[in-house]
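Quick entry between incubations.
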Amino acid sequence: MKTTTLAAIGLATTIATTATAEDIKIGLLLPYSGVYAALGNEIDAGFALGLEQFGGETDATFEIVREDTEVKPPVALGKAKKLILQENVDVIAGIVSSGVLGAVRDMVHGAGVPLIVSNAGNDEATGADCSPFITRMSFSNGQVNRPMGTWMYEQGVRKVYTLAPDYAAGRQMIEAFEATFTAAGGEIVGQDFTPFQKTQDFGPYLTQAKSSGADAVYVFYAGGEAISFVKQYDSFGLKAELPLYGSGFLTSSLYVNAQGPAAEGVIAASHYVPTIENDANVVFVDGFTAKIGRAPSEFAVQGYDAARALIEATKAGATDRASLAAALRQVTFDGPRGTLSIDPATNNIVQPIYVYETVAGADGLTQKVLAQLPSEADPANGCVMDPVSN
Amino acid sequence: MTTDLGFWTLQALNALQLSMLLFLLSVGLTVIFGLMHFVNLAHGALYALGAYFAASFAAIWGYWAAFLLAPVAVAGVGVLLYSGFIQRMRKSGPMAQVLVTFGLIFVLLDLTRIVWGDLPLAIEVPAMLGGRLAFLGVEYPTYRLFIIVLGLVVLAGLAFVLGRTQIGAMIRAGVDNDEMAACLGINVERLFFCVFCVGCALAGLAGAVAAPLLSVSPDMGLQILIPTLIVIVIGGLGSLKGAVAGSLIYGFVQTFGAVLAPQLSSVLIYALLAAVLVIKPVGLFPAKG
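Done. Structure below.
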């Protein structure tokens, strides 16, 4: 009896799917618990808003299945299998941690399911490990930091001390900065990589940086570590004599208010800040603020643009896994971040980078954009892929 | 590397400040263990809870109210834990106790997430302790000096109570031989209860003083648990002296390790832990001979 019912339901589902061929089933693979839960929820909110605002532009309808990665690669792999084999999704979006991306990479590549990466910035994912099924709508670690080396040298900074957590992303971010900064003629006078997620007290490193003779400090920290770092940097009184620069996550609008006045004057480079001036961003910020009650962060825009990219792909006529994967590689649109496109050589996003300063505004801290640095495609970095076939 | 004396003074202060924070946490845990033979792995979660209470109270009544109320609130949670779990678990052996308190870590972690959300919180350093003090030729953040002083005050207070008062004598008797102490008319259970609450309050206090320095996030309790356990194993279970020695060793090894051998800094303390376990498995200053 039970089997018959199940079979009937199964049959009904199959019929339903074939009847409306443009019903796209999306698997959202995000951390809803664990250390990155805040980012997962932020991306989810952005993604939902993207579907809501642009869903009307396409005939396709969307259904979302959410799975929690718990930021654990083995758990995420199991959830990806479930989405692909059991839920039979057409496309997967999400993934915050690069470790999780590494774990599910072979699975989605082998199954031929398009994956829209909405955070994980590991350079390798659109380098040596690239796949025609994996499109990144967020950023790559190198991309965010590379322009900052040249820009800081142009501002007259000559000697820099760098700090970052000791893991792949930390090292990639700093290496990208270091490469362009030294190429421009600057000097790295000292460098520390702090134990990742184990360092709460940055005092010893700050004292070290202070006595290094540097003109400025360049760092990458995110989340809780970023809050502790910025506050401790200020409490040691370093900000006045040793300006703090960093990768944009350092003073992300998601948690800059927890840093308080300590964040004022910090200059960072990011692919998005809520104060970018363009029409698409006004629509985005207004929509997000109305729903969530605060301005969106770079993580929210990554979810928002992932949804937008998917909609653009369906507008181009994509309906199933293979056609979606091909269409996603050719997506281009003007979004809150400016003009975005996908580099067909690596499937990584090509986007402008904004240098911004955190300043006190009318209600809390806000971001003052100092410069918009032009979009540059990442080097292929070992990526070999078939060109897009139509 | 620098030969500037001020640099080393600053690093020594950094080390001392970390030591004092760890001391506040480990002393509660070690005395609870020494007296009750109870492994309370949820101690770190109580520290996180202290930081969250402090963040909430500070938002309403300012920092000093939070500083006083957070330990009380955490002690209140301690009372609930004691009557709900720990009293029942007293006779059920270390494995069951470890499992229950280990489970409590995750329950409390998710509770903090549900109540306070996923985004890290922060509280401002009180105006009185903002800025920096210049002395010994260096400038050091006043708030960090406050933590050092607070640690020393708590240390002095505990040393006095444990060493010079009747209640301290009763606690020491309980640690040495709880059955004999009970035979002599000491209500050991009630003593356990009081010590447990004081231990929880100290964890809450540590959370409240750490909050303005660090960010308040759900996983801060897990992050601090391992260093605290290392302090206790190095120092020796159940003794005040052990907690002090363990904290100082951890603080200095960690800080100067990060400065002198950054590549080895995360390994150094574990190497030291292993060495202590091999050479003196009971720790440097165990409560019992």
